[in-house]
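Take one protein record:
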Amino acid sequence: MKPYFRVMYNTAKMQWLRKFKCSSFATDGIQLFGWNTKISVQRSSNVHFGRKVNSDGRLTIFVGENAKLTIGDSVYFNEGCMLSSHESITIGDHCLFGPNVMVIDNDHEYSRDGVSTNVVSAPITIGNNCWIGANAVILRGTTIGDNCVIGAGCIVKGNIPDSSKVTQDRKLNIEELK
């Protein structure tokens, strides 16, 4: 389908979300979300999309109560990506996300008695010009610097310095995952 139909559809969708779902919903320029993009926001959410945010196929975005999501300019999401913000997710400009990437700033509380429905969250920040490979998972409390490459299938938690490359063979110990 022609891109201008997607632009018209997304413009109408963003206006509807701003008017009826989330008063703090802002966009700069055009958005090229795929037809199957699902955006779930709360009235108290704070959402900002930069210019030319693009997705191919299914993209799922959830922004909880009082949570924040900021996506920079020229960010591309491949098929099946998911963003879940209960606190804050910030994505810089010119980032590329491979298929099935998950960016989740929250976990369920758990103990010996089992898993609770309560969540624990911590902000996620992804810098500018980052490439996140297929099936990567970015967990709560993660900061990824500018110009980083996160390899396919990686599970990332913690601080990744600017211009770093993270691959699956990076050994994580149990303490890094807490």
